From TrEMBL:
Name listed for the protein in its UniProt record: Integral membrane protein
UniProt keyword annotation of Transmembrane helix present: yes
Transmembrane segments: 160-177, 197-217, 238-257, 277-298
Biological source species: Trichodelitschia bisporula
Signal peptide: 1-23
Amino acid sequence: MPTRHIIPPPILACIIFAQQVFAATRYSNNYWAARWLNSTDLEACHYRTARTPPPGQCYEMANCILESLSEYAKVGLASGTSVLSLVPSALALIPARGSGVEEIFETMGVLYFLLSIFSGYVRIGDASSHLAKEIGAEPNAAEAQFERGREKYRLGKRHYAFCGLTAALAGITVFLATELGVQTVVTWACNHELLHVGWLFCRMLPGLAEFALVRLVRRMLQNRPSWSVGGVGSRGWILAKGANGLSLALYGLVVIYGTGLFGSTNLIDGGEVMWKYMVMFPLLYFVMQSMLAAGTVWRISDSRGCRNASPGAVALSVRPTK
């Protein structure tokens, strides 16, 4: 019987809505300004900001805060911005420990698939590269079938327990990113507080794009078998390589955008950045990937008729049907 999976988009929508309410409330109270000013200076800045047209009020408040700080405090803010710009690169350096997007989706289900993309557990470029190797290994593939035969597993309670822990850790990362946006100011987007948490979800785009492109290429090869004739250099092979290049390029663009975003974030001290973002963020992502790896080991339930999983089953076998 097909396994019924929990679909997480409604849960993610609720989390995003809650974070928006949280951000709007704290911003309306000028929480990011109150962190640096005493009551007298804050009242003076409020009076100064009220005389500015609405589009420029945020920038006027930021200028007022900086004018009220000592030079030593400004040095701490500059160091915080410099260290914060390294966070996207630090996350990108965490090696992916899972399989390709297509393999994870077809063997582990939707919930595991989305959590894998969010945490960086999935290997970007693996699925499209494997497809290109399939086409290159079949020089006479006019009648080849590109539907993959997967072994379906019934996911047990321990698997969902690890997925639940991973989802909880993902919620913590969303909270920290939202708090960062509320407490700080981005120089080129002062009025937007959710850019940092939005970037966390942008990190999912390369995996989702590769999954969609690989599925599209497979469908095209099924409808036009002649495109795979010739193996390496055929139209199918070129399309698979193109999907690989696009997914990797998109991954690079996301890292570059994150570096620019975090490097333009101001009004945060270097000490806070070090322990909360340079240490906590990579640690959370590493633990999320470890949870997903453990969930893969225990992916088979103990119900009657199902085989027990072994640690060696983490690397799922992928073979095309004959």
